[in-house]
TrEMBL record:
EC number annotated for this UniProt entry: 2.4.2.4
All residue ranges annotated as the Pyrimidine nucleoside phosphorylase C-terminal domain in the record: 429-496
Protein name: Putative thymidine phosphorylase
Keywords: Glycosyltransferase, Transferase
Regions that span the bilayer: none
Catalytic activity as recorded in UniProt: thymidine + phosphate = 2-deoxy-alpha-D-ribose 1-phosphate + thymine
PROSITE patterns, per database record: THYMID_PHOSPHORYLASE (PS00647)
Family under the similarity heading: Belongs to the thymidine/pyrimidine-nucleoside phosphorylase family. Type 2 subfamily.
Domain of life: Bacteria
Organism (species): Aliiroseovarius salicola
Record keyword Transferase present: yes
HAMAP family: Thymid_phosp_2 (MF_00703)
Length: 502
């Protein structure tokens, strides 16, 4: 049998499967029949000196794909970068070494740092399917990682990518564990800390389960998909940046795991700690502030849960050489007005510009976190006054704009074309706002994929409202998404608890 018997012409499918390589073959394809390939089979494709392992999707009808060709998803095409009219060789890949390790973890065995390293290596080489990665993520959830394993996983995630070296300079960083709509403090903190002359190369993620991540929000205003040389130029010149970690190869497995966690709609304490701290260490940070919002509808729901997470963060950070300050904050309701990338960007700019109507809660939280970082940077006891001075004087805004220009230019956020107001159904005092439900409204409106979609919050807990007063406004980029979000909001009367005073 010659090589041609296992070859197919390679075509671009033009299908975005995120970072997961997928190959499409016709059911009557001779390679499928000869090799016994079926839907979801893992297939190795060699083209020249490059290869990729992709998941097979079988085409059973239509005439868009001939039997002598294979179509590659964007991720598979980018991995192989085939020339025009290129042919690929198709075969069964060797079983991944990580498969038996994941199976052992599923059955409750403890893993070593080396075993976690094998999983990271196979994940990066795309030898593991989404089902393999989902099994791994699930096995590590719900207390599935003890502290020793958490340390091993964190080290393995960091070792799988690059680690930046900033010499003997002190590098600061900040992270919020999430679960609180709005609360986009990071860009404000970076602006204040860089204006104070400190180094803070901020590597941010896109949203996992929320309507926006810091990278999603920053991308409304400036490019965030920088490579390491470009990021270094920004930081060396302006002291900081806010960039997306997906293109930097800093703890690169984290983005693969996030892709699995997003449809599962959870991230466990152990994975969260490994994700956050491996990226901080990889970015070269030495001193880090971690914000943990606590509330009945936040990600962390009780003081006991916050204490457990704090203990895990501290134990792992000591082991990998990071100094942490942990801030337990109020997570009982959203922070700011905007929920969704563009709306949160507008809030950030209002605070930086000290504009009338800037959300006071967002400003206060950002100042608190900036104060903690400035204190860690060597000015213990004077951080808050210094942070306020830098914000009120306009120095922080200037620093932020310089960073945006250096990252590729600044764009003013725009508002969605389709909007509808949701009003109070009764009079009284707002005593609670459900974080998860209001976040779901924003996601159903299209956030974060549609940057201008989301929710503009017009009231907070403690406010008095009359029946018919505005509670929030839904923003969407299409009428269909607006109707979808509005219908959900109408079905959730308990999203805002309004009580008459006693």
């Amino acid at each position: 049998m010659n090589d041609r018997d296992h070859s197919l012409r390679l075509l671009p499918a033009g299908i975005d499967t995120y970072s997961h390589p997928v190959v499409y073959m016709h059911a009557d394809c001779h390679v499928c029949q000869a090799e016994g390939f079926q839907a979801l089979t893992r297939v190795r494709i060699d083209c020249g000196k490059k290869w990729v392992i992709a998941t097979l999707n079988v085409v059973t009808g239509g005439d868009w794909l001939s039997t002598d060709a294979a179509a590659l998803s964007n991720a598979a095409w980018d991995a192989l970068q085939p020339a025009e009219e290129a042919w690929g060789q198709f075969s069964h890949p060797d079983p991944p070494a990580a498969a038996s390790i994941i199976r052992a973890k599923v059955y409750g065995e403890s893993l070593s740092e080396g075993q976690f390293g094998t999983i990271m290596k196979d994940a990066l080489a795309r030898r593991l399917s989404d089902l393999d990665l989902a099994a791994f993520v699930t096995a590590c959830a719900g207390g599935g990682l003890d502290i020793a394993e958490n340390i091993g996983l964190t080290r393995a995630m960091q070792a799988a990518g690059e680690t930046l070296d900033w010499g003997d300079r002190l590098v600061l960083d900040k992270h919020c564990v999430g679960g609180l709509p709005g609360n986009r403090t990071t860009p404000i903190v970076v602006a204040i800390v860089t204006a104070a002359g400190h180094l803070i190369p901020k590597i941010s993620s896109r949203a996992i389960t929320s309507p926006a991540g810091t990278a999603d929000t920053m991308e409304v205003m400036t490019p965030v998909a920088l490579d390491i040389p470009a990021m270094r130029r920004v930081v060396e010149t302006h002291g900081g940046c806010v960039v997306w970690g997906g293109g930097l190869q800093l703890s690169p497995v984290d983005d693969l795991l996030i892709r699995i966690e997003r449809p599962l709609d959870f991230d466990s304490d152990g994975q969260l700690v490994a994700s956050v701290l491996s990226k901080k260490a990889a970015a070269g940070a030495k001193r880090v502030v971690i914000d943990i919002p606590v509330g009945p509808t936040a990600k962390v729901r009780s003081q006991a849960a916050a204490a457990a997470l704090s203990s895990r963060l501290e134990a792992v950070s000591v082991a990998i050489g990071l100094e942490l300050t942990i801030q337990i904050s109020d997570g009982s309701q959203p922070v700011g007005q905007g929920i969704g990338p563009a709306l949160e960007a507008i809030d950030i700019l209002k605070v930086l510009r000290c504009a009338p109507g800037a959300p006071a809660d967002l400003r206060d939280r950002a100042l608190t976190l900036a104060r903690l970082l400035l204190d860690m940077g060597g000015g213990a006891g004077v951080g808050l006054n210094k942070a306020k001075d830098l914000l009120d004087s306009g120095a922080a805004e200037r620093s932020f704009m310089e960073i945006c220009e250096a990252q590729g230019g600044f764009s003013e956020p725009k508002v969605a074309p389709h909007r509808i107001m949701i009003v109070a159904s009764r009079s009284g005092i707002i005593t609670a706002i459900d974080n998860r439900r209001i976040a779901r409204v924003a996601k159903l409106a299209g956030a974060p994929q549609r940057a201008r979609a989301g929710v503009l919050l017009l009231t907070h807990s403690g406010d008095w409202v009359q029946r018919g007063d505005p509670l929030f406004e839904i923003h969407a980029e299409t009428p269909g998404e607006l109707d979808y979000a509005r219908a959900y909001a109408a079905s959730q009367p308990a999203m805002f608890r309004i009580e008459e005073p006693t």
